Amino acid sequence: MSTSAQHQVSCGGDISETLQVMATHKGCGTIGGSGKASCGSQAGIANLPIEIWEKVKNHPCYSQEAHHHYARMHVAVAPACNIQCNYCNRKYDCANESRPGIVSEKLTPMQAAKKVLAVASAIPQMSVVGVAGPGDPLANPEKTFRTFELVNRLAPDLKLCLSTNGLALPDHVDTIARLKVDHVTITINMIDPEIGAKIHPWIFYDHKRCTGIEAARILSNRQLQGLEMLTARGVLCKVNSVMIPGINDQHLVEVNKAVKSRGAFLHNVMPLISSPEHGTVFGLRGQRGPTAQEVTALQDSCESEMNMMRHCRQCRADAVGLLGEDRGAEFTMEKIMAMDIKYDEQARKEYQAKVEKARTANLVAKQEALARLASASSKIKVLVAVATKASGLINQHFGHAKEFQVYELSTSGAKYVGHRAIHSYCQDGHGEDSKLEIAIGAIKDCHAIFVSKIGGCPKAELIKAGIEPVDRYAYEFIDGSVTAWFKLYLDKVNEGKINHVERVNAAACSNALTSAA
Amino acid sequence: MPFKIIASQCTGCSACETQCPNLAISERAGVFLIDPEKCTECAGYFDEPQCVAVCPVDNTCVLDAALPRHQEPA
Ligand code: SF4
Ligand code: SF4
Ligand code: SF4
């Protein structure tokens, strides 16, 4: 480990001094934007142009595959907001990018920068720093951009990401491009102001509060204009839409077309979260959220138009870690102030190089498995569930899983279709029947479950439920393993050894999904 | 009359702070306050009081009837 690339940051000390030391240090490839290209694998994803692949391959939200390997963090530097949404109650938190109920710790840009260094040192998979509220980052432009400037200087290998409602976006596109923010998420729930008025009661624009259809029209125009301006500057844009049954659910197909034609890269349809206890307008009014099936059906009907994101976890505005895990509690400001931060870019690089090696191996395994599958011709499609901690590996014990990743297998390979949240079944080594039932219910429509390890009792219960527990691919890559298993499955069907039965998506599984949302 | 903030309703979102043309609003321990000496009700700057317009909670930024109206500069 090279000591020149390693700096001790004493939190009690003068941060500006630290900043200077760090700003003058230029390790290999510290020039922002190109840092990772050198140590990355050459394997792109078939249908993406290489320059886009370079931008998304280490972003856990923009690339489903990357979300097995890389982590992100949100820093809550932006409390103010310039619009009101009926699904949000700012007495608590923004329901849009965060689970409501818990107030985030508000950070100053300097505190945020410190937190970024602390987290990036502790979690070498950390590749993306985002500002996602808890209000709107662009309603707090000074704090947001100051944070980005600091991160650019202190940790130039980290990518920047921004989430906005879009109202102020056209005013800031140049700054966004200048600060090398590679990824912007715009929440767009409608392009029809009549629908918009039902979702957004007012906006604060041009020093005035506007309401109703007029407000929604301004918002929609500004969102679409901002999207066009960003894509014209080569900034990748993802669009988030909150699916609200009876209000914009049908309409989101139109939204999908509109944002696609303006260059959006990915569309993320998220279910409305509305419980009365969150105190949002929708929650209090009893507006229901969609079921998991409704979300999937809508995602499917948009899929022919563009890439849909299916691995979103609806994170908090201060989430830290891999998607699906939140390590925020380890990094409260109080703990960070007491930490001795060592930002060791070299160690991060070495770690990530290992990740890249594993990913390449994973892709190779996937290609090989696909090649074997290619000989089989069959219309059969099955779902399988996987217990995984990270790294694209089957590396979690059935009993420890908090969620399962679900893949659809066909002769064209394995396609990620979503995650099923469950309450972990045996935290302390003792299983509880009810939890096992929930776990089985969550994957009732799957033919098999891949785990690193599983106890005898749950194994028997799974088999009884018609789900094959598979532990022989422990610590192997997901893609290659599930396709290899599928090839064997098809062979057995063809030889008449087993009878293929379709498994239906039981109601239980939608409950498992929505209750976790 | 200057404006005041009903502290028990303020969410501490800070939206008003950045909009006030007179820098009359500041935070103390998570709650925002208006300095009555500085507040001009936005007269001469905007058609409506900015803190009222941007605050997400209705009736949180309100006129303080206990204090005299601000004298507009001639
Ligand atoms: S809310 Fe969705 S898009 Fe945003 S960081 Fe979490 S997973 Fe990614
Ligand atoms: S009314 Fe105008 S001047 Fe007075 S506190 Fe509000 S924003 Fe500031
Ligand atoms: S805008 Fe309203 S809620 Fe937000 S800080 Fe100001 S007074 Fe408080």
Spell out the blueprint of helices and strands.
The complex is a heterodimer of chains A (517) and B (74).
Chain A: E1 6-10, H1 15-24, H2 50-56, E2 71-74, E3 83-84, H3 109-122, E4 126-131, H4 141-154, E5 159-164, H5 169-178, E6 181-187, H6 193-199, E7 202-205, E8 208-211, H7 212-232, E9 236-243, H8 252-261, E10 266-271, H9 281-285, H10 292-303, E11 320-321, H11 333-337, E12 340-344, H12 345-374, E13 382-386, E14 403-410, E15 413-421, H13 433-442, E16 448-450, H14 456-464, E17 468-470, H15 478-494, H16 507-516
Parallel strand pairs in A: 2-4, 4-5, 5-6, 6-9, 9-10, 13-16, 16-17
Antiparallel strand pairs in A: 1-12, 2-11, 3-7, 7-8, 13-14, 14-15
Chain B: E1 3-5, H1 15-19, E2 25-28, E3 31-34, H2 50-54, E4 61-63
Antiparallel strand pairs in B: 1-4, 2-3
Bound molecules: iron/sulfur cluster (3 copies).
